[in-house]
Amino acid sequence: MSLRIPEVRQKTDDELATMLDERARERLNLRFRQATGELENTARAREARREIARIKTVLNERAKGS
């Protein structure tokens, strides 16, 4: 399931920081699994990367006061 921007905007900054950390760890794990040939769902790596980008986008918007 993909994470949507409206869902991300409803979260607090602390929740977003936690989510960002979780997604970064997941992405690292997915990269290792893909390199060793264990990863079956390669689309999940792309999805994790995009979720990280969405979270960072919202955090940067808030930091800039938009």
Summarize this structure as a short list of keywords or feature phrases.
66 residues; mainly alpha; Helix Hairpins; 3 helices; 0% strand
Can you walk me through this structure?
This protein has 66 residues and is mainly alpha-helical. The protein has one domain: Helix Hairpins (Orthogonal Bundle), CATH 1.10.287.310. Helices cover 77% and strands 0% of the residues. The chain has 3 helices and no strands. The protein has helices at residues 5-9, 13-36, 43-64. It is elongated. The protein starts with a helix and ends with a helix. The mean pLDDT is 94.
User: CATH topology, which one?
Assistant: Helix Hairpins
The succession of helices and strands, N to C, reads: HHH
Distance linking N and C termini: 27 Å
Low-confidence stretches: none
Task: Give the strand content.
Answer: under 5%
Give the CATH level 1 class.
Answer: Mainly Alpha
Helix fraction? Answer: over 70%
Task: Give the biggest beta sheet.
Answer: none
How many E-type strands?
0
Q: Could you tell me the radius of gyration in angstroms?
A: 13 Å
